Structures are given as structure tokens and as C-alpha cells.
Amino acid sequence: MIPAEDRLSRVLYYAVMSLTLRFLGTSAGRPTVERNVSALAVVREGETLLFDCGEGTQRQMMRYGIGFALSDIFFTHMHADHILGLTGLLRTLALQGRTEAMNLYAPVGSESMMWRAIRLGSDKQTFPINVFELSPETPLKRKGYSIVPYPVDHGGKAAIGYLIAEETRLGRFNPEMAKEIGIPEGPLWGKIHKGEAITLDSGRVVEPGELVGATRPGRSVVLTGDSRPAAGTVAAAMGADILVHEATFADEEQPRAVETGHSTAREAAEVAAQAGVKKLVLTHLSARYSRDTSDLEREAREVFANTIVARDGMEIEVPFESGEAD
Fold it and tell me: Can you give the pTM of this predicted structure?
């Protein structure tokens, strides 16, 4: 039996290493009884990133356990069903006495629209708000990962998708062998784990390869926002753990998808297959499929088997490649 303190440590460790997606809105264009409009929370090691903020997002956050202690909201484009929730969310944060800055990120050319949404119904901001325009050439480096905007095709509209890519992890360290060699637990373990050779008091030089395995890939998630099948998505999603792709229509509405700059479920699956992703998640569904998504799921799975259709409140955990968290 694992001691209680060890069980607690394991729970805390896995929580720290977690990467989860929480779907707050999965409907296209307008809300339905079953689905709100676009919003997705990505929670990595306790940090929350919000992607798009359709009307009612603040209530969806409360309903599905996403806290308001976030500092970054990313927008794929400026259509109403992706930004109208910003005004209400900012007002709620102000009424709660927020003082920390909020950072908003959007495609090039979006700043004026952002400020219109920010100032709507508010004469004075009670906390700093920063607006940044992103182009595909401006990845955001964070501790241990990057957020990389990339080009999509939304019928000529200014729109971007996002790749969330963790850095390559160090190889697995073998503490038992280190003890056998005679390396005392402490700073020397850290040095050799980071790739530095060390010299023992006996004069023996221990190379990192003796105790540290091969480097291991980090996790990656791609979010398309609204888009036709795009070369940018294929490039960004190569080998990704999860591709979240819009699937506004079924095959029967393929001409409508082209006309409006959207994708069918089958087209999203074709992108997933080309990119060799591990899992495809379909979202941004037309209201006609709000209750019954069977056609979307069937058509996508005919091309890419590991496909699921998102629903509001769905949480997906992104595991490490090995299935282990260390």
C-alpha cells in the first residue's frame, strides 16, 4: 500500500504536470440550448489560457470550473461569436476588484475592434489591459512552452490559428544507478540530468549518457479557430497530440462551407490525416447539428478514425507520449 504522504505527492505532481482542454462553447455563429458560442480554456500546470470569448463565456467559465485568475486571452479573429463575451468578462473582473493586468492577443489589424469591445459599457478601466496584434512570425515564448500563431484561411478574413508546443523534455534520470555509482543525492544529480559531465572524488568522470535516457518530446495542441482546410494548419499540426478543428458543416453543406470560409467534418479529418495527429476534436458546429452530431462524427471517422465531437463542458487531458507525467 502506498503511504498517504506519497499518494498526496503523486496527486500534486500529476496536477502540476497536467495539460487539459475545457470546451466552453462549441456552437458556430449563435448559441443553442445545448451549446454556447466559441470559447476554449487550455489549462497547463495551473496556468489558464483562454482562446476566443464568445457571448456568455464568463458564465460558462463559472459553470465548468474555470477560474477568473487568468492573464491571457487569445482571439482567432474578430467575428462576433468569438469576441462578444469579452465585454462582460472584463466588467465582471472589474466588479470583483481585479488589479492585475489582462493581456489580449489577436490578428494584425484587430486592435481597434478590441478596444471597442473593451470600452463598451465602461467609461474607465479599473485594471491595465494590454492589446497585442500577432502575426504568424511572432511566436510567444513562455516558460517551458511556446504559443505559435499560424495562418489559416477564413475566406479572406484576418484570422489565425494557434499551436501550443511544449519544449523537449530532459531524458529520464536513473537515481538508483546514480547511488550505485556513488553519486550523492543533491546538486550533482541536477547537473548530470541537465547534460553536464561530473567528476567524482575518485577521479572518475561520469557522462550524462550513463544515467540519463534520451530526450522526450513535449506535448502539442493545435487550435484552428474558423478556417477552411489550410496548409498552415497541416504544417503546424504535424505529429500533434490534439488537433481542435472547426467542423461547421457535414458533407451535404460542402458548397456552403466553401462560401463561408468554413470546413466540413470530412475536410477537418483530411487535415488531421495529412498532419499525422494523434487525435482530432471537432468543434464550431452549425446549429443544425447541435443535438445530433452523428453525421459529422461518421463522415470524419471514415477518413480519420480517432475523431471525437466536442460538447460544452467536455474536458480532455493531453498525456505525455509515454503515458507518464515525469
Answer: 0.86
